[in-house]
Every structure is written in C-alpha cells, then in structure tokens.
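ok so heres the complex, three chains, lmk if somethin looks off
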Amino acid sequence: MSSFQGQMAEYPTISIDRFDRENLRARAYFLSHCHKDHMKGLRAPALKRRLECSLKVHLYCSPVTKELLLTSPKYRFWEKRIISIEIETPTQIPLVDEASGEKEEIVVTLLPAGHCPGSVMFLFQGNNGTVLYTGDFRLAKGEAARMELLHYGDRVQDIQSVYLDTTFCDPKFYQIPSRAECLSGILELVRGWISRSPYHVVWLNCKAAYGYEYLFTNLSEEFGLQVHVDKLDMFRNMPDILHHLTTDRATQIHACRHPKAEEYFQWNRLPCGVTSKNRIPLHTISIKPSTMWFGERTRKTNVIVRTGESSYRACFSFHSSYSEIQDFLSYICPVNVYPNVIPIGTTMDKVIEILKPLCRSSQSIEPKYKPLGKLKRARTAPLDSEEEEDDLFDDPLPVPLRHKVPNQQTLHPEVFPVPAVSQNQPQKLTQSTECFKVENMQTSLRTNFIDCEESNSESEEELQVPASSPADPGPVTHQQKAEAEVPQWEVFFKRKDDITDEGLENLPSSTEGGGLSVTKAFK
DNA sequence: GCGATCAGTT
DNA sequence: CACAACTGATCGC
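and the predicted structre for the whole thing:
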C-alpha cells in the first residue's frame, strides 16, 4: 500500500496519486493508474471546490486511465479538466500559481509501468533536475534498458531521484515467476479442466481491481471462450480487451464477483448465480491469482498450487520482485531513491539500506550532482568494451552496463499489451489545449506543448482531433507466443486422472455449447 | 445523508 | 500468503 504523500522534493508544486491535505494546493495533478489507493481525495468536496475556482488546474494521465476514470459517474466532474498524454511523448506542461501569476514549465514523459491497463511511470524534467516517479510497476529484468525515453542518446538519463514502488523490496521476495510463466501455468490448468466437457467451468477469483485483463484476453484467445465479467462498459473504447469479455453467463470461464462468492462456490454456484447448463449441474473449480515468491536460494517450484478439492492458487503479481527492483534501480542509478511503500514486516531504514547501494550517492567516485548541461555529450555510436573502460574515469555515472538495449518496443507485448483507446467519433477537446510538435533541442525527441495559458471561457474552442490509434506492436500469433518464452518454472497441476470426473458418465454426447463461440471437443 | 477512518475479510 | 478493495461499525458534520 503506497505511503507516498503526493509530493516530490524537487517539484513540490505538483501532486501525484494523492489529492488530499497539502496536495489541495498543487498547480497540476498526475494519476499513474486507476487503483483506489492512488486516488485518495480525488473526488472529495475539498478538491471539487478547488477545481471550481482554479481553472488552470488539470489532471494529467494516460489515455486509458482517463477512460477508466471517467467511466465511473463519481469522477465525471473531472471530464473537462483531465488532459491525457500519450505514452512516450515528452510533453511540456505549464505550472502556474494563480495567485501570483508565477509560472514554471515542466516536461513530463509517460512510460509504461506494466501494472494494470493505463498504468504509467512519470519522468519529469525541469529546473530542479530529472526525477522518475514509478507509481506501481511490474517490469521484468532489462525492461528499463529497453525504454527509449529513459535514455539520452545511448546513455541512461541523469536522474536525480527515483520515487520507487518498493512493495516487494525485501529479500524474501527475491524472485517471482514471470508474467509469461504464470500465464502459461494458468492456461494449462484451465485447459485441463474445461476440455473435459462443456459442463466443466472455471471461476477466476480475482479482486476488484484492474490488472487481470491480460489474463482474460489470453485465456479467451487460447480457448475461443469469452470471459464472463460483471461490467465491461469501461472497456467500450478498448476493443482488444472488450472482445474477450462478455456479460453472457453461458461461458466456461468466469471472472464475475459477488460479496458472498466464496460461500456460493462451496455450493457449486458461480458468483453470477449459475449452477447448471441445460439442467445439467456444472463442475467448477476456482483459481485464485495471488503472489507467490521464492528466496534467492529457494528451489524454484510450482506456479499452480492446489488448495482444496476444487480450489487452486495461481501465481500472479502486479508488482516487481526484489531482484526486478534491484535490476531496475541499478540500471537507472539515480542520486537519490525514495520508497513509495514500506513492505509489511520491514522498516523504512531496511528498505533504504537495500536501495542506497544501487544509487550514485553511495558509490560514486565523484558524488557531486552535475546538471544535464555539463554532462559530456553522448556519442552516437556505441563503443566497444575496451574504450568503455577508459571512458569510466571521467564518466559521472560510473556504473557499467547502463547502455540502451537497441531492441525497444518489447515490453512483453505478448502478455501485457498497452491498450489503445479508440473513439468512434472524433475526440472533442473543449479546452484550448493546443498540442503541437516541435523539435526539442535537449533530447531531440518529439515534445508536445500543452498551453493552458488561455484556458478561459472566451477563448474556448472545440478542436476536432482525428480519432487516434496509438502505435500498436501488432498482433502476435500463437506460434510467436509459444516461441517467446519457454517457462523455466515447472507447471504443476494434478494428473488428469486425478481430477474428479463424477457425473461425467451421465452427460449426453452432444457438444451443444449454449451460445459459446467455440465448443470444446467432448470426451 | 455523506464522508472519513478503522478493523476485519477475502 | 502479503494486493487491493469491499463491508460494516463508528464518529462527525
């Protein structure tokens, strides 16, 4: 649970993921993702009032987060004050103090965080240096090195401070099986059950939170069965998710919820109330996604664990493991690090003790901070390793292996796609929010400028923006998926003949699928 | 009636 | 099994 209070030392006039107390005075707000514990105060009367009299205050987030947030009527009042920023597009934002008229500019870049749909990290660049707020993240080893915009030329950016998701920053969480390994385990468990008959169904016992969507889409893709959920209107503009979900209860894969779901399940009833199909009782198993971890020297073991007659736990994590955190931070190698979370059973001091050695402040030959302008210019071509060694003597970032991995756009697209938000009608921007592309002298990367200077009612115009469809890595075939990663974690589930088959012999030999898009072969 | 907070549950 | 959110009790406006 995040204990970040909303403000960063370098840029105290902006607030991120907290909207109460001191944050009520912020010049701009940022939301990293749409989870309730990062939205404290976001719909409180105090902030609502502030918004009414401070017309230059906006909330910045990713297009997907904006879509998810505005689906809830409780947050509709934000509609005209949210500005979505495309992923990986440096964007300049004015920070205006409405009382004094004092103005400061900051450039923000959204980087995919792999935590839930729309989740991002914020990279801020301004007068007080470059800082990175990670929000909540799950990034595999090496993924920071593949992020183009964390780099300046071929080098990693000179980052003053990182505000870090330390949820699993404890050596006991040393390793967590990868997304692909967990997914593969769940796919095989589900396959082993639902292929027995159309009356064999699985219930995915998920918490009420965004973040399971890639599980649903992969299951649906694999078996040609949409996943039953309670609500799907939040995904109405995200076809890649929407098409894999249904509110029709006649499917073999359920992720519906009910306050008494566990109780229901004991009586062979799904949370949506279904107990049978064609008057034939269903055979149900529950699969509860939950985090599993292994210490540095613990033998790797199963990603699926049987917890009862018809219950399983399946490995699933929203957050990076200890070793993934170490990889991430040691690559960035900032001057300072601030934990956003104190994991239960540990202390701030212990977390700092773990993270400090990965920062420049404790290891640098030359610990003094140098502003960006004084850094040696990055070379255009990579050096060979020998030259590299020599170079370290006057390099203010004396950590090797911190060069960009050329292969970008590979943030596990096969299991964690960044959804595209598309609108049928052209998007209407009612603010005079002019975004235009210029060449940024410093980074040579495209920068958007958001100018809120004239956002008063008289200059309001309706800008017609063509329906946007952000760059998509493209569909990944099953073939590619299979080749992408061979799980090194053993997938465990009971032998097929161990799975109870009671009642199966009485089933009709019909393969009628009850409206399902695909009917599984019937044994 | 609404919201904030806390304890308990999953 | 450690996330994140719901539920219900309590208090205050």
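quick notes: Residues 1, 35-37, 167-168, 173, 207-209, 211, 259, 290-293, 313, 317-319, 343-345 of chain A lie near DNA strand C (CB under 10 Å from a C1'). thats all i got rn
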